[in-house]
TrEMBL record:
Species this protein is from: Dyadobacter luteus
Modified positions (4-aspartylphosphate) in chain numbering: D76
Alphabetically ordered keywords of this record: DNA-binding, Phosphoprotein, Transcription, Transcription regulation
Domain Response regulatory: 17-136
SUPFAM superfamilies reported for this sequence: C-terminal effector domain of the bipartite response regulators (SSF46894), CheY-like (SSF52172)
Top-level division of the source organism's lineage: Bacteria
GO molecular function, a single term: DNA binding
Keyword Membrane: no
GO biological process: phosphorelay signal transduction system; regulation of DNA-templated transcription
Start and end residues of each HTH luxR-type domain: 154-219
Name recorded for this polypeptide: DNA-binding response regulator
Amino acid sequence: MLNYRNYSTSSRYKNTTAIIFDDHRMFAESLALLVERMDYFDSVHTFSEEKELFRFLLNNESQRETFFFVDFYLLDKHCIPLINEAKRINKRIRTVIVSSVMNAATIKYIDSNKPDGFLSKLAGFDEVLACVTVLRDGQRYISPVIEKVLEDASEHAPVHFSKREVELLQYFYQGHSIMSTAERVSLSMHTIVAHRRRMMEKVKCKSMAELLTFCRKNGIVGDSETAR
């Protein structure tokens, strides 16, 4: 386990920005204050609206090194599409997903997307500092409490859904029909039906209600407020 108390805050990162994005402004601003205490970054910015975030990224130097802290659950979706778009705009972004999620299936899904850092919301200043320092050295960081969940779950073989399947499941959970979902993801209705059938086979269930119940129970889909 990483001994994060050995890290120092003695040097500022030159030409480096920190961005905190969360639809809960109070959490974003609290984390920003924590990050500012490091005295590492030239600037620290908080955002709660996607349009404001992307406007900032587009208007600033695309090659400026940026540490991007983002909550996993955002309103009616998760942060992976947001991260992918941010990386498209700025190739030097280092992503740190911050979440209170403790469900093994959801943690494994997040980890499968290989964020540079994965912080628990239980983390204090020392651990946030450790995360930034490890990322600066070109390594990944995962909170010890999250690593423990992964270790405890390693003996079990969870049901694995692809990124596309998780996206579709979230739309189904929100009550979208096959037609509406197909329009939103630019796929044919036939393809959506095929995805749905394969997901039901994975879970060994016979109805969408059973599939969504399973996914909700395992933290794969959920409302932003309850999932946090």
